[in-house]
Write a structure and sequence with these properties.
Blueprint lengths: L17 H12 L6 E5 L6 H13 L7 H8 L5 E4 L3 E2 L4 E2 L5 H11 L9 E6 L6 H12 L5 E7 L7 H5 L2 E4 L5 H7 L5 H6 L4 H8 L5 H10 L6 H12 L3 H22 L3 H24 L3 H13 L5
Parallel strand pairs: 1-6, 1-7, 2-5, 5-6
Antiparallel strand pairs: 3-4
């Protein structure tokens, strides 16, 4: 059963996002290629995959079997640098943020001569994870770009970025993949999950982790205003120990709160719609703080589910 996707560095061919590719190709063909591209879109839609696809285009590695293509796949190409959240060896999980020490190598990399005489490319994956110092360091780099250098910056939350950082980038806004591309990428997933993923392959795989429906059941009971019993607390404790349990509950709960907000707005109940939107915002804060500061996940799940059970006045 195909229930995984290739790493963005290894993905070929590219599914979807042809409009974004065309924008880039037109800029490239004009001879005035912009030095920084902000690739935004829903989580799991393929932003990093597109970034590597465009990097391969610049570095002559579109053919994965070519020498440049193999070096990109192996992570050994001298003219490609990637920046993302790093693994914390003590905790065995990704760190909550990208720090200034992660960004600092970009400056020296971009000011060295390209090892293969062409472009130098930097991919920063997950721009919303930059802490304040890292964001300022990256901004300085964008303000003084060297020639023959391109940065591809990905984010699921462009509104959370520094306006000055966004203004120095050319946007590539990605939408969800079509049904044909989704089925081609994930042929063994149920159609119901593909539909709920709204064109995001990563989200489809994420939703498929709730194979027994435990997370969905918890969220449904909370949204119905039910009090959770002892058995549910045992389940929550188990989910908190799972690598993706907390994130999955938050994702499903956020989807449910947003749907409730839309229903309220369509029926003219603007006060309820505003209340649901505020709970969605608070859920995002709970998730961000818990993941960034490695807080107790069981307590965070309880706090998140309590948002659904709060009364209208809350």
């Amino acid at each position: 059963m195909k229930d995984s996707l290739p790493e963005p560095r290894l993905a070929a061919p590219l599914y979807g996002h042809q409009a974004a590719v065309q924008q880039f190709e037109e800029s490239f063909a004009s001879g005035r290629l912009h030095h920084a591209w902000l690739i935004s879109g829903p989580s799991g839609v393929g932003k990093a995959t597109l970034a590597f696809h465009l990097a391969r285009r610049l570095l002559g590695g579109s053919d994965l079997s070519s020498p440049a293509g193999r070096r990109i796949s192996a992570g050994t190409h001298g003219d490609l640098l990637t920046v993302a959240r790093k693994m914390d060896p003590r905790k065995g999980q990704l760190r909550g943020e990208i720090t200034v020490s992660d960004v600092q190598p970009v400056q020296s990399f971009l000011h060295h001569t390209a090892t293969e005489g062409g472009w130098r490319v930097v991919i920063v994956d997950g721009l919303e994870s930059l802490n304040r110092f890292a964001a300022n360091a990256l901004l300085k780099i964008l303000e003084e770009p060297p020639p023959k250098a391109v940065l591809f910056l990905t984010t699921s939350s462009p509104g959370a970025l520094l306006p000055t950082l966004r203004s120095r980038c050319r946007p590539l806004v990605l939408s969800g993949l079509g049904g044909g591309d989704m089925r081609a990428l994930l042929p063994d997933l149920p159609e119901e999950i593909l539909q709920r993923a709204h064109g995001s392959p990563g989200r489809a795989l994420f939703l498929a982790q709730d194979r027994d429906g435990i997370c969905a059941s918890l969220v449904a009971r909370a949204m119905a205003g039910e009090e959770l019993d002892h058995d549910n607390w045992v389940i929550i404790s188990r989910l908190a120990r799972d690598a993706d349990g907390f994130a999955l509950v938050c994702d499903l709960l956020g989807e449910a709160l947003a749907a409730r907000a839309r229903e309220a707005a369509c029926s003219g109940n603007l006060a309820l719609a505003a209340g649901m939107a505020e709970r969605t915002r608070r859920l995002g804060q709970i998730r961000m703080q818990s993941e960034r500061f490695n807080l107790d996940k069981a307590e965070a799940i309880r706090e998140a589910l309590a948002l659904a059970r709060s009364g209208p006045e809350d």
